[in-house]
């Protein structure tokens, strides 16, 4: 090992500079700052859609800080949990504010993450060489859903209790292991004190650590391959004499100032919700969750929080009658692959066998609709991870794709929002049919993407990024 070398500074150097040099000699603080932000070169044509990554990090910090203060007074005990939340709201100084910051922050987290994912969808940020960036981000999304689900039980209100009961019971639909798996998750035969304790442990300790690790991996992978941009062009292909991309600028101070402006606007809107509409009409905090959990009284309508409802609608749409539509859909999709795919005969044969097994499994005598509802529920989330391999478009960015591609994306957003709304409503026959149509459209968007993403007349992609200074 080499000898320790200490940075020599002039005797009249500022104290702060000397302190930083002392730290840098022992820990790469300046190097980490420069590599990850200070001298990280990002494309100069970022737009407002690129704010949501920074906002996600901001809300994550907000949730951790407010969560720490909440745990100081919260009691993870079935007999005391609801009362401890009321104590925080009514007796702890500024406790109501911390609680509302945390509950509103949960919804804000999903809003900015959904918008962050929408930006990736529009500009092809998941395409080569950023597949791992997308997968790490998807891992964050999965853990965020689990974190929200575990945290949702902690207030021990009516909707918390019965929502957990319904979701955990879904695992019972899995053949052979379902009942044992549900029992293992609950820690009891019903949602009880044991369930609350293990959910508290996952929400407060386990999942935040996993999320922080995935965030570090997400950022490391991003800075290794470089950020995408609205044109979908690799800026690293055109380097200047200094070795930096010609179409990139240092993140600090250029994007620091833009992010600070975005943070200011976000905090203004966020504060307005916290102070004037923390329940957001029952979407952020439901009326039934202000009532203590009662295992003897089932709410008339059990629905998860709004950020789960698009996927929950897929689950509810899977009825016994809908299974026949799904069987026809699987048969048509396999036939479509045989006619349109250029894959080898062996691959097509394997796909046909898998399709046949799926159709047989969907027969009511084999596996019931509840099981396939759980499968579609999980698949509707997991299929998002496959985007890097489903999108075969010659152009990464939506800017240079055929104009009608935008209508497909717009229809997908409409379908997703409609599913989310339907998940909050009572399942009437009309709403059930609409949710089934939207479910088919949702999966068609992804499963047919290898074909429709290559169709149409594409606009020429420029070799350098397009940028208008302002």
From TrEMBL:
The subunit field of the Swiss-Prot or TrEMBL record says:
The main subunits of complex b-c1 are: cytochrome b, cytochrome c1 and the Rieske protein.
Q: Which family does it belong to?
A: Belongs to the cytochrome b family.
**Limits of the Cytochrome b/b6 N-terminal region profile domain:** 19-231
Cofactor binding description: Binds 2 heme groups non-covalently.
Q: Which GO terms describe its cellular component?
A: respiratory chain complex III
Which residues does the annotation say bind a ubiquinone?
Answer: 223
Function, as annotated: Component of the ubiquinol-cytochrome c reductase complex (complex III or cytochrome b-c1 complex), which is a respiratory chain that generates an electrochemical potential coupled to ATP synthesis.
Which residues take part in binding heme b b562? 102, 203
Q: State the needed cofactors, names only.
A: heme; heme b
* Residue stretches spanning the membrane: 48-74, 94-116, 132-153, 159-178, 199-221, 260-277, 322-339, 345-364, 371-390, 406-424, 431-452
**UniProt KW keywords:** Electron transport, Heme, Iron, Membrane, Metal-binding, Respiratory chain, Transmembrane, Transmembrane helix, Transport
PROSITE patterns given in the database record: CYTB_CTER (PS51003), CYTB_NTER (PS51002)
Q: Mind telling me what this protein is named?
A: Cytochrome b
Name the residues that bind heme b b566: 116, 218
* Species: Massilia timonae CCUG 45783
Q: Sorted alphabetically, which Pfam families does this protein's record hold?
A: Cytochrom_B_C, Cytochrome_B
User: Which PANTHER family does its entry note?
Assistant: CYTOCHROME B
The protein's GO terms of the molecular function aspect are: metal ion binding; oxidoreductase activity; quinol-cytochrome-c reductase activity
Q: Where is the Cytochrome b/b6 C-terminal region profile domain?
A: 241-463
Do the record's keywords include Mitochondrion? Answer: no
Give the UniProt subcellular location, in the record's own words. Membrane
Q: Report how it sits in the membrane.
A: Multi-pass membrane protein
Q: Which GO terms describe its biological process?
A: respiratory electron transport chain
Tell me which SUPFAM superfamilies the record gives: a domain/subunit of cytochrome bc1 complex (Ubiquinol-cytochrome c reductase), Transmembrane di-heme cytochromes
What domain of life does the native source organism fall in? Answer: Bacteria
């Amino acid at each position: 090992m080499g000898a320790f070398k200490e940075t020599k500074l002039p005797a009249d150097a500022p104290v702060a500079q000397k302190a930083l040099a002392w730290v840098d000699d022992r820990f790469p603080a300046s190097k980490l700052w420069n590599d990850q932000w200070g001298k990280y070169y990002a494309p100069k044509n970022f737009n407002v859609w690129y704010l949501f990554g920074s906002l996600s990090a901001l809300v994550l910090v907000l949730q951790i800080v407010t969560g720490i203060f909440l745990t100081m007074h919260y009691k993870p005990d079935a007999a005391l949990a609801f009362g401890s939340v009321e104590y925080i709201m009514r007796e702890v100084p500024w406790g109501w504010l911390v609680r509302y910051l945390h509950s509103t922050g949960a919804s804000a987290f999903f809003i900015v993450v959904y918008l962050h994912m929408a930006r990736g969808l529009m500009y092809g940020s998941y395409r080569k060489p950023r597949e791992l960036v997308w997968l790490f981000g998807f891992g964050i999304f999965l853990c965020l859903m689990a974190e929200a689900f575990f945290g949702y039980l902690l207030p021990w209100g009516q909707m918390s209790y019965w929502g957990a009961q319904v979701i955990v019971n879904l695992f019972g639909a899995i053949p052979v292991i379902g009942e044992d798996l549900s029992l293992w998750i609950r820690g009891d035969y019903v949602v009880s004190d044991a369930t609350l304790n293990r959910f508290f442990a996952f929400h407060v300790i386990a999942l935040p650590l996993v999320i922080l690790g995935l965030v570090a991996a997400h950022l490391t992978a991003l800075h290794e391959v470089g950020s995408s941009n609205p044109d979908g062009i690799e800026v690293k292909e055109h380097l200047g004499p200094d070795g930096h991309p010609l179409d990139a600028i240092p993140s600090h101070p250029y994007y620091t100032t833009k992010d600070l402006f975005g943070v200011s606007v976000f905090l203004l809107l966020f504060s307005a919700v916290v102070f004037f509409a923390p329940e957001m009409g029952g979407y952020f905090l439901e009326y039934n969750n202000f009532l203590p959990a009662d295992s003897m009284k089932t709410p008339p309508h059990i629905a998860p929080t709004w950020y789960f409802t698009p996927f929950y609608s897929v689950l509810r749409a899977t009825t016994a009658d809908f299974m026949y539509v799904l069987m026809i859909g699987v048969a048509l999709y396999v036939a479509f692959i045989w006619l349109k795919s250029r894959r080898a005969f062996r691959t097509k044969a394997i796909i046909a066998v898998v399709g046949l097994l799926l159709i047989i499994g969907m027969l009511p005598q084999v596996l019931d609709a509840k099981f396939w509802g759980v499968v579609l529920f999980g698949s509707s989330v997991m299929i998002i991870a496959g985007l890097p391999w489903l999108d075969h478009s010659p152009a990464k960015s939506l800017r240079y794709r055929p104009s009608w591609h935008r209508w497909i994306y717009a229809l997908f957003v409409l379908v997703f929002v409609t599913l989310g709304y339907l998940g909050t409503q009572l399942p009437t026959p009309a709403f059930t049919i609409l949710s089934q149509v939207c479910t088919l459209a949702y999966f068609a968007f992804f499963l047919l993407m290898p074909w429709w993403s290559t169709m149409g007349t594409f606009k020429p992609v420029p070799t350098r990024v397009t940028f208008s200074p302002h």
